[in-house]
């Protein structure tokens, strides 16, 4: 099978790595990709947001499957453009991607489907904002309605800060604060059949101890030794299947990857958000544990034949990923700095630890930083403690001036398991 992956992050590197290990994949292409993806796929320089360009490339290459990684092309309708030229595509239509593209739309679907989520108000005026903040009280949760790469959400006990964030957005969703650990659960779906993957936990805050601003994600691990073994089954029944059914009922079936961001509260599971694509960095750890070859699963979702697929097989290993970010991330990051130590990791830590590239590019034979999240160092082990040791040993070999990473990814979960 010839496959084209759209995107350029560590998630796409993880997808490409996994696809490159699939014996059914005979050729792997990626657009636009990055310096790391270039090692496993042939790169093509096109604008990932340009549906016609992606469809034309897919046609030229004769690929049998296009996998759209990030949310921005999905919301821009890239999957629709590819479907129109008759090539199977893993990723929802523009309309269905509104599940991620608009928090207000997602709330509406959840209400119709009876999916448990935080109570919320959609606000467009100062008065509505003040009334909503007053109704829920502190801590305040204020979300930009549109796409904001994980950075449009402010959770604060400071009323003035909550109002200030709302004032910066055209339309906001203000909601009840959800207490309890967060879980990311992904499901592959063809619009009807829903196949949940293994749960993971993401670390959204920039600094150790969950301090600092929200980011796109600073690390992740899987499995979750502390979670109820019935969690996946419960979320499938109460969240994933009803949402997929409701989208189909509306005439906008959702196919691709449905990402449920969940809070495990004292009153039960609640949806924090939906995303319409694989999460980053959770994908790095979920795919590290997947034993079923990936291409066939994604193709079945694209073609509507998931019901015929055998159950997914998973490794009992644990996986941990640690994001190495540029100086100043999640603010405007510093870029163009050389990255060292990549060869050392490949020589000394493989196959148990490896580097997935995000914001990198090649510059005269060297690899330099080119974005906020630069690398995602991923490792597997018999348990989380071993995976953590391996991941951090590899992180220690990476040199990048001014870079930052969290030192506590999976630390609590690893201790509790011991
Ligand atoms: P979102 O972009 O909706 O996933 O929000 C980003 C992060 O903000 C989440 O991962 C949570 O850590 C936090 N968050 C969002 N909504 C809530 C909520 N209702 N209660 C508590 N924390 C929240
Ligand atoms: N890990 C958070 C996200 O992908 O949105």
Number of helices: 14
User: Biggest sheet, in brief?
Assistant: 5 strands, parallel
CATH architecture of the largest domain: 2-Layer Sandwich
Strand order of the largest sheet: 3-2-1-4-5
Q: What does the overall shape look like?
A: globular
- Gyration radius (Cα, Å) is 20 Å
Kindly estimate the percentage of residues that lie in beta strands according to DSSP.
Answer: 25-35%
Assembly state of the chains shown: single chain
Going by helix content, strand content and strand pairing, the class is alpha+beta
Distance between the termini: 43 Å
Q: How many DSSP-defined strands?
A: 24
Bound molecules: adenosine monophosphate, glycine
User: Number of folding domains?
Assistant: 4
CATH superfamily of the largest domain: ATP-grasp fold, B domain
Average pLDDT: 95
**Which CATH class of the largest domain is shown?**
Alpha Beta
Helix fraction bin: 25-40%
Stretches with pLDDT under 50, minimum 5 residues: none
- What is the CATH topology assignment of the largest domain? D-amino Acid Aminotransferase, Chain A, domain 1
């Amino acid at each position: 099978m010839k496959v084209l992956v759209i995107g350029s992050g560590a998630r796409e590197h993880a997808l490409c790595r996994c696809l490159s290990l699939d014996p059914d994949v005979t050729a792997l292409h990626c657009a636009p990709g990055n310096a790391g993806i270039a090692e496993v796929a042939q790169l093509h320089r096109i604008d990932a947001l340009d549906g016609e360009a992606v469809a034309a490339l897919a046609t030229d290459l004769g690929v049998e499957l296009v996998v759209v990684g990030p949310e921005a092309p999905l919301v821009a309708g890239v999957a629709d453009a590819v479907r129109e030229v008759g090539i199977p595509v893993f990723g929802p239509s523009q309309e269905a991607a509104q599940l991620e593209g608009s928090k207000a739309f997602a709330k509406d679907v959840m209400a119709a489907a009876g999916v448990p989520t935080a109570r919320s108000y959609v606000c467009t005026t100062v008065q509505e904002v003040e009334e909503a903040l007053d109704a829920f009280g502190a801590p305040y949760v204020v979300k930009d309605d549109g796409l904001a790469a994980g950075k449009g959400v402010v959770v604060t006990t400071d009323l003035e800060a909550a109002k200030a964030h709302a004032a910066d957005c055209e339309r906001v969703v203000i909601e009840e604060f959800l207490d309890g650990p967060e879980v990311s659960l992904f499901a592959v779906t063809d619009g009807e059949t829903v196949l949940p993957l293994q749960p993971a936990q993401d670390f959204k805050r920039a600094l150790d101890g969950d301090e600092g601003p929200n980011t796109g994600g600073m690390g992740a691990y899987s499995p979750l030794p502390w979670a109820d073994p019935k969690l996946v089954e419960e979320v499938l029944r109460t969240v994933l299947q009803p949402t997929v059914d409701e989208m189909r009922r509306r005439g906008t079936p959702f196919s691709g990857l449905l990402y449920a961001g969940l809070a495990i509260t004292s009153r039960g599971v609640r949806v924090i958000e939906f995303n319409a694509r694989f999460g980053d960095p959770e994908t790095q750890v979920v795919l590290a544990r997947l034993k079923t070859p990936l291409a066939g699963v994604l193709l079945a979702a694209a073609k509507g034949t998931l019901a015929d697929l055998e159950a997914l097989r998973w490794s009992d290993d644990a996986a941990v990923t640690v994001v190495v970010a540029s100086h100043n991330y999640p603010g405007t990051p510093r870029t163009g700095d050389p990255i060292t130590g990549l060869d050392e990791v490949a020589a000394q830590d493989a196959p148990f630890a490896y580097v997935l590239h995000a914001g990198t590019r090649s510059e005269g034979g060297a690899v330099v930083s080119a974005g906020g999240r630069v690398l995602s160092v991923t490792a597997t082990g018999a348990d989380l403690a071993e995976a953590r040791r391996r991941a951090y040993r590899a992180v220690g070999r990476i040199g990048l001036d001014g870079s930052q990473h969290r030192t506590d990814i999976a630390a609590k979960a690893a201790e509790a398991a011991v």
